[in-house]
TrEMBL record:
<protein>
    <recommendedName>
        <fullName>Nucleoporin</fullName>
    </recommendedName>
</protein>
<dbReference type="GO" id="GO:0016973">
    <property type="term" value="P:poly(A)+ mRNA export from nucleus"/>
</dbReference>
<dbReference type="GO" id="GO:0006606">
    <property type="term" value="P:protein import into nucleus"/>
</dbReference>
<dbReference type="InterPro" id="IPR037624">
    <property type="entry name" value="Nup133-like"/>
</dbReference>
<keyword id="KW-0811">Translocation</keyword>
<dbReference type="Pfam" id="PF03177">
    <property type="entry name" value="Nucleoporin_C"/>
</dbReference>
<keyword id="KW-0653">Protein transport</keyword>
<dbReference type="InterPro" id="IPR007187">
    <property type="entry name" value="Nucleoporin_Nup133/Nup155_C"/>
</dbReference>
<keyword id="KW-0539">Nucleus</keyword>
<dbReference type="GO" id="GO:0017056">
    <property type="term" value="F:structural constituent of nuclear pore"/>
</dbReference>
<dbReference type="InterPro" id="IPR015943">
    <property type="entry name" value="WD40/YVTN_repeat-like_dom_sf"/>
</dbReference>
<dbReference type="Pfam" id="PF08801">
    <property type="entry name" value="Nucleoporin_N"/>
</dbReference>
<feature type="domain" description="Nucleoporin Nup133/Nup155-like C-terminal">
    <location>
        <begin position="733"/>
        <end position="1148"/>
    </location>
</feature>
<dbReference type="InterPro" id="IPR014908">
    <property type="entry name" value="Nucleoporin_Nup133/Nup155_N"/>
</dbReference>
<dbReference type="GO" id="GO:0031080">
    <property type="term" value="C:nuclear pore outer ring"/>
</dbReference>
<feature type="domain" description="Nucleoporin Nup133/Nup155-like N-terminal">
    <location>
        <begin position="39"/>
        <end position="331"/>
    </location>
</feature>
<dbReference type="GO" id="GO:0000972">
    <property type="term" value="P:transcription-dependent tethering of RNA polymerase II gene DNA at nuclear periphery"/>
</dbReference>
């Protein structure tokens, strides 16, 4: 009956307390500290003034404090090494409750006492038990004694061994308490009443005596049989727990106690009524825990010793169902510990924690591990003052709270949901105790949290936790943490700090952060409070995003964000910043009396295009909900400007400055914000597809620059002359933004990331070429409108040295001392060296200012050397070489120039001066290079041949009257000099083309000269055939196949020069007359010349049969690049006709006779007969 009365009292007490809680919640407005769909934390009650004073400024590292909230009695307490404070926590939520103060046993101890409140029901105040670590026990029958100093208490001393100390104190029921020690002893405290006065008797756990008359001694029971001969091993008892009273199969007068003893689990049967205890289980858990930890959590090492597994705390969920808290080493070594977490490696985790679900299927079975899950907590070097972590069960063990000194970790038994309550200032605050509030038939479960500053209430939604989606839940959880950090983290009185759990999921972190950022820029009402003052609202949103990235950095998880995720967060922030600046500019524009705005017009047009005009104020709606689309305004701004330029009824002059200002405000603000916050967001350039340099943005900025330029270049009148002032001032900034955007896009297109996308290289080439064309035009526009210095700055920034050279010579070029930019040129030479001088010298060359090039100071000679060495510029470098008395280099340059020039006069000059320079080397002691010297001779001979040919052709023109066109001159020469090829149209066309080049003073190639020498009528210049052969024999840079073909064509034309049928008619012809005929042939004259100076070049001397092979079409196409295919084929036919003609003459016998005759005449010393 007494037991039932006691239970009734407890129940009554709980009902009253619950009513007090509800009443307090109804009358006191909530102060929210944290809130998510699953969890809400709010202010619950104040601490007594006395407690606040003792805890304010407390050194939690140097002094020991503990506390608790006893929801059974409705009281809370805080104990220190010197005193214990007890108060009714729901008495006055906003005021200071009455505080009962008691002296702690064992004053001077380094640790605070263990404590337990003694419930007596709702009719009287509870009692208090304090147990010092060294074993001194104090009992106050009523806490009301604390109002009078707390001197009236009973005391006793537990019998402890040397260095033995108390480790736990727990309440079994209102009359029974159990304490444990560091060497495995268990003590039972029993509350009894004598004469209306309560006493607390203490004794060690004991086995039953032989004289006991209890029926349980006489009859064997399952407990006595199971424990026969069991001797529990001694050790440090880290935790003790009591099975619930409603455990099936256990008598009311017996309770089951579980204890963690070092690495072992012990179970005791406490016979409450009979006054004795017996052990029923003693099992080592380490082997099964090591195995489970590796299999289910993937422990980082297989070395049990290095894993350093520790059994921390224990709770009993139900009959033979246990929940164990374990800790283990978090990192492999000190180095990895220092690098694991935290921006500077100083917060590396030391210990990780896990919950182990265990069961004992039957009373005689061993303990079985059912499951392991991580606790979202790890101790670090920055953790709060150490306390012994404890497990608290909520809602029938559906939810689990683990109490650490600076964190309460929350887990669900049936879902993957987890969360944490973390103190903001763990070095001066501590979570001293927890209290579980259970409500019947409710979806809510509540946890009271006692900290050094307040009591908080954590309300948990069981249904939301049960429905937690493991797929999307991670990102949702991260977003929830971030959202709470933004909404509640800045509240001054909020004791909580928001942080991510250990091993935060990277994908969840990125998704959560990006979702929250998107919610801010879209003015999600859950994040952003509605505010008609848009300036204030924009400022609030900027602060939210700033808080977001600083929160990520403060938690040391920025490195878990991918580069693309960081850039998306940075982009949101810079767009919001740009919109804030744009809104400010719009307000200023309207405040100055403007009645129209290009910006509002563009916003209306955009909102209409996306079908989003159902707002009372469309412009404000854009800035509230469409900040992410600010880049899409650009084409609408440009469209408005274009409409103005075409609308005669509206003035472009009035709106152009605002249009330019809109573009500049958006881009400049965004780019400045980005540059300033690169480090904060951890952004690595180049940006990935940056919105500030998309093609549409670049086109708009360029279009705006063009409109401004046309407006400024247009006619000025009295009406718009003043209107040009502002656009003229805006030109430099507009040009700078344009250059920044283009360079940014080029950097992206050059990046490794962009290289993998199709079309990137094409886009890069097109934009680069376009930029190269635009720069000089923009620099010139700036110069014309008075911004030359800015043009120089831009050109310097993008290292456009060609434009710098051009800008330096826009005024007077010669003489140099009158050029106003000469000092700038010298500075650029010193600053940029070869990069600038290369473009400077090239400018002189391209603009015909060689006098400027060769009058430079001697200090620039080294740059001139590099310039001419970097690229072949033989047409000029020889002048510099001669000036430096480098005759060999000058000679080589002139030879090279003679080979590339198409001017006969230049070729002649280059070879002549080059020969002199070559000879000048001899005076410096350089040996004569015969090969090079012969090359000059051959080149000059070739020039002489062309000059003689040209003179021969011009003799024909001397007979013409008046000034004739080139074509008429060519026709006259062809008519007089090409009679033998009139029927061969292709060869005639080639001949005409070559004659045209000669008349234009172009230098011919050797092949061209050979064709002219052998295709023209040579009745009076029969020696030209031999000249052609000699030219071919000396040429070095002609492909062998084409050289051989040229030789064959020359010999074909030599053989076909004469009428051999007539020569071979010997009727009435003497031998001397026949020999005279043979000596008059082109064949004889040619052989006489080449045999006098024989050459070993293949093809130099060919008989008729060797000369018949004709070049194919491919060879002819190589010989005449660019010639139409039909002409090439016609030319091939003409060549074949030449060979066929020679073949038909059957000259084999004649050839040998003429050859013998030429040899004989040479041996006899006769002169060659030339008709």
């Amino acid at each position: 009956m007494a037991e039932e009365a006691s239970m009734a009292s407890i129940t009554s007490s709980m009902d009253i307390d619950e009513a007090q809680h509800v009443s307090a919640q109804k009358t006191v407005p909530e102060t929210i500290f944290a809130k998510s769909e699953e969890l809400s934390v709010s202010f619950y009650a104040n601490l007594p003034t006395e407690v606040k004073q003792i805890l304010k400024g407390a050194d939690f590292y140097g002094e020991s404090y503990s506390g608790g909230i006893d929801t059974e009695t409705g009281y809370a307490l805080v104990a220190s090494q010197r005193a214990c404070f007890v108060w009714q926590y729901a008495q006055s939520p906003k005021g200071s409750p009455t505080c009962y103060i008691f002296s702690s046993p064992g004053e001077g101890s380094n640790s605070c006492p263990f404590h337990a409140l003694v419930p007596f029901g709702a009719t009287r105040e509870p009692g208090l038990v304090l147990l010092a670590p060294h074993g001194e026990l104090r009992f106050w029958e009523s806490i009301s004694n604390g109002l009078a100093g707390g001197d009236h208490f009973s005391t006793s001393q537990l019998s402890l061994e040397v260095d033995e100390y108390i480790t736990n104190l727990t309440r079994v029921d209102p009359q029974t308490y159990v304490a444990s020690t560091s060497i495995g002893h268990l003590f039972r405290f029993t509350l009894s009443s004598t004469g209306g006065k309560y006493h607390l008797a203490a004794r060690a756990f004991s086995q039953p005596s032989s004289s006991s008359l209890s029926l349980t001694r006489l009859l064997p029971s399952r407990w006595t049989l199971a424990s026969a001969g069991l001797q529990p091993k001694a050790g440090n008892i880290s935790s003790i727990a009591i099975e619930p009273v409603d455990t099936v199969g256990i008598a009311v007068d017996s309770r089951q106690l579980w204890a963690l003893v070092d690495s072992r689990l012990q179970k005791w049967n406490i016979h409450i009524a009979e006054g004795w205890e017996e052990p029923t289980l003693d099992e080592d858990l380490l082997p099964s825990l090591h195995k489970a930890l590796r299999e289910q959590l993937g422990a980082w090492t297989t070395d049990d010793e290095r894993l350093d597994l520790e059994l921390v705390d224990l709770q009993v969920k139900s009959a033979r169902n246990l929940l164990l808290l374990i800790s283990f080493s978090a990192v492999e070594d000190e180095n990895s510990m220092m690098a694991d977490h935290g921006p500077f490696g100083a917060q590396g985790p030391r210990r990780r924690y896990a919950l182990v679900h265990m069961s004992q299927p039957n009373t005689t079975d061993t303990i079985k591990v059912e499951g392991v899950r991580r606790v979202p907590y790890q101790s670090t070097t920055s953790s709060g003052a150490p306390i012994h972590p404890r497990i608290h069960l909520l809602s029938g063990a559906e939810l689990i709270a683990v109490h650490f000194g600076d964190v309460v970790a929350l887990c669900s038994r049936y879902s993957v949901w987890e969360d944490r309550l973390t103190l903001k200032y763990p070095y001066k605050d501590q979570m001293l105790g927890l209290g579980v509030m259970e409500f019947t038939d409710s979806d809510q479960s509540s946890l009271l949290v006692l900290s050094a500053g307040t009591i908080m209430k954590a309300s948990l939604s069981l249904s939301q936790i049960a429905d937690f989606d493991p797929e999307s839940g991670r990102a949702h959880l991260i977003k929830s943490i971030l959202t709470q950090a933004i909404l509640y983290g800045s509240i001054p009185e909020n004791p909580l700090h928001f942080s991510f759990p250990p091993d935060v999921d990277e994908d969840g972190l990125m998704n959560g952060a990006e979702q929250l950022s998107k919610a801010v820029i879209e003015s999600d009402p859950e994040i952003i409070r509605p505010d008609h003052d848009l300036t204030s609202q924009l400022t609030s949103r900027k602060e939210r995003l700033s808080w977001l990235i600083h929160f990520i950095n403060d938690n040391g998880v920025l490195t878990k964000l991918s580069q693309s995720s960081r850039q998306r967060l940075a982009t949101d922030a810079e767009k919001l910043y740009a919109c804030h600046q744009l809104w400010t500019a719009l307000n200023d524009h309207l405040d100055h009396g403007a009645t129209h705005s290009i910006l509002t017009e563009a916003v209306y047009d955009y909102m209409h295009s996306v079908g989003n005009t159902a707002h009372e104020d469309v412009v404000r709606a854009f800035f509230k909900y469409r900040v992410g689309d600010v880049g899409k305004l650009f084409p609408f701004v440009m469209e408005s400007v274009n409409r103005l330029s075409k609308d005669v009824g509206r003035s472009l002059a009035a709106s152009l400055p605002e249009s330019i200002s809109c573009i500049l405000t958006i881009l400049s603000s965004a780019l400045d914000y980005r540059a300033y916050n690169l480090g904060v967001y951890g952004v690595t350039l180049p940006m990935i597809k940056p919105w500030t340099s998309r093609p549409g943005i670049i086109d708009t900025v360029l279009g705006m620059f063009d409109v401004a330029t046309k407006f400024l270049d247009g006619p000025s009148d009295a009406e718009n002359s003043g209107a040009k002032t502002e656009p003229r001032k805006q030109l430099p900034a507009l040009a700078s933004v344009l250059f920044t955007c283009i360079n940014e896009r080029l950097e992206w297109l050059r990046s490794i990331v962009a290289a993998g996308e199709a079309g990137t290289e094409v886009d890069r080439k097109e934009l680069s070429d376009r930029f190269a064309q635009l720069r000089p035009e923009i620099f010139e526009t700036l110069r014309i409108h008075g911004h030359l210095e800015h043009a120089f700055s831009l050109a310097e920034a993008c290292k456009d040295f060609r434009s710098l050279a051009s800008l330096c010579h826009k005024d007077k070029v010669w003489p140099p001392q009158e050029n106003p930019h000469m000092s700038r040129i010298e500075n650029y030479i010193q600053k940029f060296r070869d990069e600038f001088t290369a473009e400077l010298y090239q400018w002189y060359i391209e603009h015909g200012e060689l006098r400027g090039l060769f009058t430079l100071e001697d200090s620039q000679k080294s740059y001139m050397d590099v310039f001419f060495a970097a690229q072949a510029r033989s047409s000029i470098s020889w002048i510099y070489d001669l000036g430096q008395e480098r005759y060999g280099a000058a000679s080589a340059a002139l030879v090279a120039e003679s080979k590339t020039t198409d001017s006969l006069a230049v070729k002649h000059f280059a070879l002549s001066v080059g020969k002199l320079a070559h000879l000048a080397q001899i005076q410096d002691g350089v040996a004569l290079d015969e090969t090079s010297f012969d090359a000059f001779h051959d080149g000059l001979d070739f020039v002489s041949v062309q000059q003689n040919l040209l003179e021969e052709m011009r003799t024909v023109l001397s007979t013409l009257r008046g000034k004739q066109s080139i074509e008429n001159q060519v026709d006259a020469i062809v008519k007089a000099k090409a009679s033998t090829i009139r029927d061969r149209r292709a060869l005639l066309g080639v001949f005409k083309a070559l004659i045209r080049l000669m008349l234009q003073n172009h230098a011919l190639s050797v092949e061209d000269a050979v064709d002219v020498l052998t295709l023209k009528d040579n009745s009076e210049t029969i020696e030209d055939y031999a000249t052609a052969l000699q030219l071919l024999s000396r040429v070095q840079d002609l492909p062998d196949a084409r050289k051989a073909s040229s030789f064959r064509r020359v010999w074909c034309r030599i053989y076909s020069h004469d009428n051999w049928d007539q020569i071979r008619q010997t009727a009435n012809v003497t031998d001397s007359q026949l020999m005279m005929r043979l000596r008059g042939t082109a064949l004889y004259n040619t052989l006489s010349i080449i045999l006098r100076a024989p050459h070993h070049s293949p093809g130099y001397d060919l008989d008729p049969s060797e000369a018949l092979v004709t070049p194919d079409v491919a060879e002819l196409a190589s010989r005449w690049p660019g010639m139409p295919q039909e002409q090439v084929e016609a030319l091939e036919r003409d060549y074949r006709a030449e060979s066929n003609l020679v073949a038909s003459m059957k000259l084999e016998d004649v050839y040998h006779r003429v050859r013998e005759l030429a040899k004989q005449d040479l041996s006899d010393g006769q002169e060659v007969h030339t008709p």
